[in-house]
Amino acid sequence: MRAKVVIVGGGVMGLSIASWVARRTDPLVEPVLLLERDEPGAGASGRSSAVLRQYYGSRCTAGMARDSLRYYAGFENRTGRSIGFVRTGVLTLALSRAPEDVARLEELVEMQASIGIEVSVVNAAEIRELVHGIEIEDGTFGAWECGAGCVDAERTLEAFTAIARNKGAVIRNGARVEEVLVEGGRVRGVRTAEDVVECEQVVLAAGAWTKGLLARLGLDYPLEVTSTAHLFVCSRDPHLAQGHDDPKFGMHGPEDSGATTWFSRDALHAAMAHPDLEGHDHDLVEGSGTRVSHPVLIDPEVGFYARCEPLHGRARVGRFSYDGDARVDDPEGHEPRVAPEFEAWALDALSRRLPGYADVRVLGAEAGLYTLTPDAQALVGPVPEVAGLFLVSGFSGHGFKLAPSVGEGVAQMLLGEPVSAFEPEFFAPERFRGRAPAAPPLPFGI
After folding, report:
1. For the chain, how are helix, strand and coil distributed in percent, rounded to 5?
2. Is residue 438 part of a domain?
3. Which of 85, 265, 280, 423 shows its CA 20 to 30 Å from the CA of 215?
4. What's the rounded Cα separation, in Å, for the pair 23 and 174?
5. Cα angle vertex 30, ends 28, 35, to 5°?
6. pLDDT, tens only, 353-382
7. Is 73 a member of any domain?
8. Which residues contact 368 (CB under 8 A, 6 or more apart)?
9. Are 47 and 244 in contact (CB under 8 A)?
10. Strands 224-234 and 314-319, bridge-based pairing
11. Are residues 198 and 318 in the same domain?
C-alpha cells in the first residue's frame, strides 16, 4: 500500500490534520492515510473536557485559541453536523488577591483584547453575578470570556472523522503502527502489525505513544506522559441556576453568523449560541432540556476547574495543574485508574467554591493519558533528524481548543506552503536543543 501522507493517531489532532490535508489534495494522486491503533478518540481526546478558552499567557497560543473557537462556533452552520457547541462563557480567577497576581491577570486581558479576544476583568461583585452561590472574598478578580464555551468531545471527534473521510482521507482503525521506516535519513513509510505502508511524509500525532515511536528511531524529545483524572457529578442545582436580566454580561453570537445576540442572565448560563436563534433569549442547551448551571470556572487558587456537560446531564471537575498526576513510564498495557483520594479532593475543592455542590450525587470518574512538555507548549513541526517526519504531540491538555489551527498549519507545512495558522518557531521541536526549558506561565491544560 502507498500513500502521500500517513498520519499516526486518530485523536483530535490527527483527525483535524487529515481533514485539512485531504481537502487540499487529490485522493487518487496524493492519498492521505490515518492509522489509529484503536478507534478515533480512544486516547486522551475522547476523555477531554473540550473547554474552548482563549485565556493564555502567550499571544501566539491565544490567537490560535481565538481562531479555533470561531471555527467551532460556525461548525454546524458550515457542515450541518452538530458538535454540541455551547457558549457557556469561561471565568478564570486570578491566582490570588495579591497585587502582582491581579496585575498579571490585567496584563493578559489587555494583551488578548488587543488581538480581538472578547475578554474583560471582572471584580468580586461581578463574579457573584456570573456564578450564583460562589464563595469568594472581596478583592477577588477574574478574567471573563463571555464568548467562550465548550464542545462535546465525542460528537466533535465523530464529525471530524466523517469530514476527513468525505474529503477523501482513508482512516484505518485497529492499525497499530510499530515503526517509522527511514532510509538515507528520509522517511520511506511505516510498518504496522499487518503490513508496510510506503509514503513520503509521516505525521506522529500518537499522543502518549509518540515518545516510544521516536525512541525506536533513536530520538529523544522531552515528552512526559501522565494519568489525569476527572470526576463527574450531577449538574442540576436550582441554587446555581438562578438568573437575572442584565445586558452587562451579554455575549455575542457566532463570529460567522453576522449577528450579535444579547442574552438574559438565565440564557447566559444556558449559553445556546446557534445562528438561527439571533434576537431571542433561550435557556435550553442545543439538543437537550438541561439548563447549564454556571459558566466554566477555572480556579488556580483552590486548584480545580469545573464545567457543565449538558448533553450528558452532568458536571465535570478536575485538577487545575498536573502536580497531582501520576507519571506513566510506558503507556503500553497501562490502564488509567482514578486514585481513591481523588474523589474526596475533587468534591472538597468544588464545594469550597460552589457550596451548591456539597451534597451532589457522584456519577463516576475516569482517567486519561496526557502528554506534557517542559514548557506546556506542544512540539509541532518537522523533525530535523529525519526528512519527511513531522511531530505533533505534547499538547499538555490544550489539544481540543487548538486543533483547528494546528490542523490548518500542519497541512500548510506538509504542502510546502508558508504557515499562517500559527508561528512555527514557537512550537518547533528543536527548541529544547541545547537550552533549559522555561517554566510554563499557565500550567493547566483543560
Report:
1. 30, 25, 45
2. no
3. 423
4. 24
5. 100
6. 999 898 889 999 999 899 999 998 999 999
7. no
8. 43, 44, 46, 47, 48, 227, 228, 230, 336
9. no
10. antiparallel
11. no
* Cα–Cα distance for residue pair 221/98, rounded to 1 Å: 37
Each residue's pLDDT tens digit, 265-305: 333 333 333 333 233 222 323 333 335 689 999 999 999 99
CA distance 180 to 206: 12
What pTM was computed for the model? 0.86
Q: What is the distance between the alpha carbons of residues 72 and 292, in angstroms, rounded to a whole number?
A: 19
Using an 8 Å Cβ cutoff, are 403 and 12 in contact? yes
CA dihedral 17, 20, 25, 27 (to 10 degrees): 70
What CATH number did the domain enclosing 109 receive?
Answer: 3.30.9.10
128 shares its domain with 178: no
In a domain, 164, yes or no: yes
* Apex 407 CA angle, 77 and 148, nearest 5: 50
Q: How many domains does the chain have?
A: 2
Residue pair 119/104 in contact by the 8 Å Cβ criterion: no
The residue type found at 443 is P
Tell me the three cell numbers of residue 201: 511524509
In the chain, the amino acid numbered 36 is E
Q: Who contacts 320 (Cβ-Cβ below 8 Å, separation ≥6)?
A: 298, 299, 300, 302, 303, 304, 305, 444, 446
In a domain, 79, yes or no: no
d(CA 353, CA 350): 6
pLDDT score at 292: 67
Please tell me the distance from the alpha carbon of residue 235 to that of residue 357, in angstroms, as a whole number.
Answer: 8
CA dihedral 258, 404, 306, 135 (to 10 degrees): -50
Residue 50, all three cell numbers: 473540550
Residue range(s) defining the domain that contains residue 39: 5-45+155-223+375-432
